Amino acid sequence: MEELSLSYGGLLYWDRTLTLLLKQVQIPGVDLGYDVHESAPKLFEEQIRTGRYDLCEMSAASFLVQTAREATDFVGLPIYISRNFRHGQIYVNRSSGIHKPGDLKGKRVGVLDYQMTAAVWIRAFLQHDYGVLPTDLSWFTGGLTSPEWVERLPESIPSGILMHRIGAAETLEAMLAAGALDALITAQPPLTFDQRADGPIQRLLSDYQHLEQQYFARTGIFPIMHLVVLRRSLYEEHPGLATAIVEAFQTAKVIGQRRLRATTGLAVGLPWLGASLETVDQLFGGDAFRYGVSANEVALSALVGYAYEQGLTKKLVDPADLCAPAVRSWHD
What we know:
Blueprint: E1 4-10, H1 18-21, E2 30-36, H2 40-50, E3 55-59, H3 60-69, E4 74-83, E5 90-93, E6 108-111, H4 117-130, E7 138-141, E8 162-165, H5 172-178, E9 183-185, E10 201-203, H6 208-219, E11 224-231, H7 232-237, H8 241-260, H9 273-284, H10 297-309
Parallel strand pairs: 1-2, 1-3, 6-7, 6-9, 7-8
Antiparallel strand pairs: 3-11, 4-11, 5-9, 5-10
């Protein structure tokens, strides 16, 4: 493989990508320039708008929508770099009268982007586990913590969805705190959330960890949030590049997890890291972040099904289409 200089944009994951940043793990024949981003939404918006990076962490839902529209110059790789359960990320104003999921019906709910991956998964469990349909809510989009907001992809709002754009000087978090919104779906806790029992902002599902473990035991789904995408022209011009990238990311993850498990000196500031790793062993067989299509068939099929059910895609995408053909059969 000829020497290539590739630009990569992504968040930094200490147990999955740190060694790539430090160049302790390298992609054979590739000089990888790793740009660390703090904000996933800003990275996604920039990459979709400009295609700045050759290799990039990308919203799974946004890539799915682009794939369904046949409107992307990138191919997916089976590197599911970010995953997260989302039961704990519905926040409500204490005065809203919302005490259980069913109380969301008829309420005003904020979301940064209707199509963002976290919202897809949250709407799915609200519908299938609690009987709350997306059409039961009144949706509001806009800036989360600052009024600045750019639509990631031109959205075609599904039929029956009540969608509102908040004012140019407003923010979703401020509206929630003021009671102008009843609830907020977000990938990060609101700045005004301090976990006090009498605080103005509360989690809708306070026992979320227990619920998430039950959800996984019942469905086998650890929700995929982000994957890695590669510029299509590079994929086509350089046979073997996609496989080399996946192998390098896998090696980086193995090294990171080995360090994470050396609990005689904790790799991160979590006092009960050992207990958490025991849970990972019990529930996930030792690796909660497995790469490869075959290892993630259940989660990928659920994601494409929910996106179609929620009207984000006009057709039911084949999960295999989210991965470049050369690496569809790769497994760790």
